[in-house]
Amino acid sequence: MTLMASYAKDPRCIAMAEALVPLLRGSCPENAGGFGGSYQVNLDDEEAVGLGGVELIRAAMRRAARQLDWKVETIGWIRTRFGTMAAVRDTREIPREHRTVVDAAMYERMSAAMARVSPEPGGVPVQRGSVDLMTQEFRAAVTEANV
Question: Could you tell me the pTM of the whole model?
Fold first, then answer.
């Protein structure tokens, strides 16, 4: 069995998590009671290594999500066609009173993703909740936090 490194007390992880909390909070659909959040960043492999690597980024995402009481699921892959991908998702059961709002937001995100890969001519604007925008926000936040 291979033991994974613990980033719990790593100052880079702590600083990155603090920078991520408002970003994760902002990923939740409006009027959804803090449910339905997810966050993904696609970084150049070298950029991710410079931040401490995909496992440190995932650890910071988990730490930030737990501060929001999310039940957490994370992924992290290196050397994909998009570079390094890291994501976190709240897997809590969504209360009935917020389900419609969360479902509508998910549909909107999926529609926007489909529009980006569609052969239809014309540019697709960067949309709230898009991976491109989340990655830009992440870069700005970790730069400001001096991670």
Answer: 0.85
